[in-house]
Structure formats: C-alpha cells, structure tokens
Amino acid sequence: MQKMTEIRWHGRGGQGAKTASLLLADAAFMAGKYIQSFPEYGPERSGAPITAYNRISEERCSIHSNIYEPDYVVVVDETLLESVDVTRGLKKEGAIVINSARSSAELRPLLRGYPGRVFTIDAGTISRRHLGAYFPNTPMLAAIVAVSRCVEPEDFLKDMETSYRHKFAKKPQVIQGNLDCLAQAMKEVKE
Amino acid sequence: MSIRDRLSGNEAIATAMRQINPDVFAMFPITPSTEIPQYFAQYVADGRVDTEFITVESEHSSLSACVGAEAAGCRAVTATSSAGLSYMNEVLYCAASARLPIVLAVACRALTGPININHDYSDSMAERDSGFIQIYAENNQEAYDNYLQAHRIGETPDVRLPVMICEDGFITSHALENIELEEDEAVRAFVGEYRPENYLLKHENPLAVGPYGTSPYYMEARVAQAEAMKNAKRAILEVAADFERTFGRKYGFFEEYRMEDAEVAMVLMGSSAGTAKAAVDELRHQGEKVGLVKVRVFRPFPGEELAAAMKGCRAVAVLDKSEGFSACGGPLFAETAAACINMDARPKMIDIVYGLGGRDFTVDQAMDVFARLRRIVRTGETGPVYSHMGQRDLRKGDMPYGL
Predict the structure, then answer these.
(1) Sequence spans of domains, chain B
(2) What CATH number is given for B3-247 in this structure?
(3) Which residue of B has its CA nearest to A86?
(4) In CA terms, which of A92, B65, B131, B218 is 20 to 30 Å from A36?
(5) pLDDT digits (tens, 9 = 90+) for B58-86
(6) Residue in A closest to B285 by C-alpha
(7) Which CATH number does the domain housing residue A125 bear?
(8) In this structure, what DSSP letter does residue B355 have?
(9) A63 and B275: CB-CB below 8 Å?
(10) CATH 3.40.50.920 fits B254-396, yes or no
C-alpha cells in the first residue's frame, strides 16, 4: 500500500473533535483522496474524553480497526494531557499538535518522554477573535493540515470555502470568520 | 455514471432508501441505527420522497406497521439495532411466515449485558432462525449496494421473504468513507415498481394474512417457507448478476479473497474481513499461502458453496463476532463446520469468538490467527476447537487500552 496518513484526535465530548475529524476527511476527500473518519464511543457525555480517527490515503483502505500507531495526534483540550496518554504509539517521526497558550517547551514534560515534534496553537484565542466564541476545532483543523500537509494548504483553504458556502448557505455572515480562523491558525501554529 | 461521494454507512443506507422511495417507513430510534430514520425524516421534510413516515412507540410496533403496510401491498421499510431487534422478535417471524418482503436495515450492536452500544452480531445472530434473509456488509459501499439489491431479492415471486440488510454498528454505520453512489433514476430503474400478485386490499381477490394454522395446515406452510428460502439462493445470484451488469460491482454469497491455492484460511463477516485482508496481503507478500472467505449472505446459508471454497485448505479458522453460549462455538462456526461434514478431505477447523461489544479487531490479531493455523498444519494438532480472542487477562491485571 502507498503512504497513508493516520491521525488520532483527543478531545472532550462537546468540543467538536469528532466534527473536526469529519471536516478533515471532507477536505481530503475534496482533494481527491480516500478517507476514513470515525469516532470511538465510550460513555457519551459532555466533557468526557473522546477519541476520533482519520486515515487519508491514495487507495481505499480496507482496515477498520482503531489507530494505535498514528503519524499525528491532535489534542483539542490540553487538560487531557494529565489524564490520557495522548502520545501512546505516536510515531517519533510524526508530531503532536496541542491547543494551548503555552509553548511546546512548557508542554513537553507532560508528554511522557515523547521524542518527536511538538506544535502548539492557541485555538481558543483565535476562535474567540474570529468567531466570537470558543470553537477550538476550526483552528485545530487548520493546524493539523499545516503540520501534516496531508492536504495541500492552498487547496485546503479553497475547498473549505466551497464547503462553508454550501454548509452555511443560510448563514453567510459566519463564512468569512471561519475562513479567517483557518488562515490565521495555519500561520500561528508553531513548534 | 456513478457519483463519487463520502458517506457514513447510515447515510448510505438512508440514501438508498430515498432513491427507492418506499411507500411506508415506520420508525422507532435506537443507537446506532437512529441516523437512518433521522436522515430519512429530512428527505420527507424536504419533499424528496413521498413515503408515509410513521413514528411509532416501539420496535414491536414499527415492524408491525411494516407488516400491515406490506400485507396491504405497499413497500415498507424500517431500521433498528440490538434490543430493538430483539423486541421485534415475535413480529419478525410473523413477517417472514406471512411472506411479506419488508426490508429491515440493522446496524448490528451487542445485546445486554452488560449494557453496551457497540458492535457485534449478537442481535442479528439471535434472529437467524426468524425466516429473514440476512445480508452483511464489509463497509458503507457494500451496505448501500446490498440495500439496492434487497427489495428485488425479497420481492421475487417464488421467494417473497423479508430481508435484513446488516452493517456493523459504529464501525460502518458511523464511519465516513468514500463511496460510489448511483443516479436516482438508475436506481429506480434497477429496483423497479413493486407489483405484488396478491395483497390484502385487492378487491378482486381479497385474502387473509396471518390466519391460524392448525396441525393439518401448519407444516405445509413451513415447508413452503423453507422452499422459498432455498429459492432465495437463486434470486440473490440473479439480482447480483444484474447489479454487476448495471453498476459494475460484483457480489455473491461470499467473497473469496486470495483463496486460490490457499492452505490456511479464515471465514468471517463484515468490517473485520477488510482488516484481515491487510494481514492476508502481508503474509502473501511473504510467500505464505493464506486467504479468507467473507460471508455476505448468512440466510440462506450457502453451505455447499462455502465447503467448495475451502476445498484444498488444510486448516480453517471461523471467526464468530457473537457468543452463542453453546459451549462449543458460535453460530458461524456451527454452520460452516456442518457444511463441511461430507467433504472428502476436510480441513481442520477451529472457532474463535472475538470483537464482542466493540472490542477492536486488529491486523495483528488476524496475523495471530494465521500463525495458529500454520501451527495446526505443521503439528497436525488442532488444539482447542473453541476459544476467545482479544479479552484482557484479568489474572495478570491487564488494564483497558489507554489506561
């Protein structure tokens, strides 16, 4: 099989980690890829840790297990770093992207010795500025695209605009805020 | 022309239902099948179908409403999972014995207990003797394609049986994947209009549906129903052949994956087969003669054909994703082994119960199964015929993954 990108999302119920995983799959689909996006359901309740997954590849992937050795991990809620082993199985040549106002140097001690690249992005501030509310999943989506380049960043922004114009046909006033949110997140994500 | 899209298994099935535009959809929600009526309700609200959408108070009632509608000559559908399917149990038998070709989508989910919303086949396997045709899907594409074939199979005049279209709860029902959809007009042309020969409200020939069958009559009805299930084998292959001519995707009773010259093989169902294919590819790459058979049609059970597919195998593992508590193996094993009983050179056979209540099935586990089969061939020792795989060793204090 040709190269496949595997991504694991950690979030809390209600923060949109599953939705972000669906949107990433959508963006990759529009770029012509084969995609999988699926959640792992535990006891569903707001605030409980949840996991979602993406596989992105050039050929259809027949594997339907969870992902144990991801290329990338996205952490939508940094409080999970204390309770969940988010870097478990994460490939050392991969990377982790964390929603935090802190620097990667400050967060690294919480990552149980993970030797790979650590990226941070203050998704809360970006989302409040452009969307007026705490929707961290939109900036996190752009951040993982910028870090993994599983989709070409320019194509991604174009495809997301098409997608938002369709999705928010009845609320066109929110389209620009979302696009600005994505563009700024791609610029601000840092190692 | 196919349409390139991406849908979850539930949306794929709801899309097939929208394209077919059934007369009646009687619905009661249960995880993980709930999205099917949820999507369909939107199609009703948007005027994309003119289906009579009936919200009822239970699954017993949803299937009962379908029985009434089909008996009146309508095309009726519903969807359910787990305890919802169990609650339909009595009516499943009514539908099948009254020879009403209802199509029931099942997002397969474990039965209680402990209470669990995730995937295994304990719900659908518990209904294997209900008289429904049962067709299983590996992924969203197969769930969609199977649904498109279901009405024609069930409505075939010498079959007239209800059909369960089974997908794996969450693993397929909630996973977004690429899919090739067909045009609405092409689907409607393929499925065609439903023109039952006899029905309740046909004034020239009124009939009773579901009457009492005394001993001098009951057995004839049951034998006729058994004949209909045998006829379903022919109908399934005919509809599959026409489906392939029309849409280009090939289906049969089961899929043989790299079974040419295979010495050891796995027999299994659903999404797990996709995962196991990766193990087959890896071992074939290493020169091992391994293959798998993915059972698509469980009712009617294609026993003779399955036995023929395993001819030449020296060891076979059947993987059961439901625990039948027989103390000697799950339902897929029991039926597969029975099908092989008269083979001249039978392979050694073992049963492995796995994946209960959403326990993940991995490529590594599939590799372990093949390693065990190769050991059986090498030593000639079958070892334990019936065992479980993937459970934690509580004596060693194994914790759930991630804890």
Answers:
(1) 3-247, 254-396
(2) 3.40.50.970
(3) B402
(4) A92
(5) 999 999 999 999 999 999 999 999 999 99
(6) A1
(7) 3.40.920.10
(8) -
(9) yes
(10) yes
